[in-house]
Amino acid sequence: MTLRKGEKMTISIQEHMAIDVCPGPIKPIKQISDYFPRFPRGLPAAVGRSSSSAPRPAPSQTSGSPSEHPRDDEEDVDQLFGAHGTAPAEQPARSQAPEELVDPEGYESDDCTALGTLDFSLLYDQENNALHCTINKAKLPKLDYRKGLKPMDHNGLADPYVKLHLLPGASKANKLRTKTLRNTLNPTWNETLTYYGITDEDMIRKTLRISVCDEDKFRHNEFIGETRIPLKKLKPNQTKNFNICLEKQLPIDKTEDKSLEERGRILISLKYSSQKQGLQVGIMRCAHLAAMDANGYSDPYVKIYLKPDEDKKSKHKTAVKKKTLNPEFNEEFFYEIKHGDLAKKTLEVTVWDYDIGKSNDFIGGVVLGINAKGERLKHWFDCLKNKDKKIERWHTLTNELPGAVLSD
User: Against a cut of 0.90, is the pTM above it?
Assistant: First the structure.
């Protein structure tokens, strides 16, 4: 292109872009934000000062290979954020001794505390076949998107409660829960929940699952974290304290759920009164009953017979307890009978679910007598052997009761 004397050179925009880009390697076009970097929240101000005062490496020559130029921008980023992360492995000269990271929210970044901690204690009362679970307090983390935690409530707080569940077992009867505390991340319950009818066998094969949840009135309750304690870790009549980290929800293995075969348990007391010349039968309570209604509960009551019952006058009933799988009756019934005749008798105890407008559902039953086996036989024998002594025992209900009429 030739220019006449006195003319100025004009360059089109296309020619200008071509001159700026070619020849040579392609460089990324800098944006204005590159000159005013925004530091992440919580980054100390000293980082910005140190990075700005640090000498920049000399720009590479245009004769270098194209792969070297993106590396320059990576080094800029490393300079800006090197104090908030880890230096690349291929730059050993720039790496420094590891320092403890400080969370800007004041919480530890360890996964152990990501879901919070729970303080509680467990006590197995062997004499009364009861497991006492005292839920003391919890410490829940603040909302932190970096740890993948979902927001609980719009105010960043929670309405936490604790739920207990004995495994294996899928019945609502195995579930207990504390009260709900509102708008807190540091709830203190100091509440004791008790499982009744816990045997030594249960302490060997069962596990206590403790879950912390956030109650929501308008949606499903949110799961926060859980922990599981094998009951075999507990020693009888000794309180064991725990302060452990919550974990993510684990699947329940239903293939090993043998307790689904059980229909529940019942606490029965027997006493032969020499003064009244008769057998005193106490129906104290039931635990872990099978749910027979659509709402996941039952309306249980208990019937007892002393057989053979030629006059059909031995039938007794307890009151109906509404919507529960762990009813407490504390009712006693009396049979006038000679002590010598008890050896020929059998006590049949059945538990039913009361229904309106249709037949009552059979939940389970147990037979005590000289023809029984195991604990049922031992309970009956101890009653005959120890007059005027009240003897209480827990018995497992079965869904088939020989000699019983499965209709009410």
Answer: no
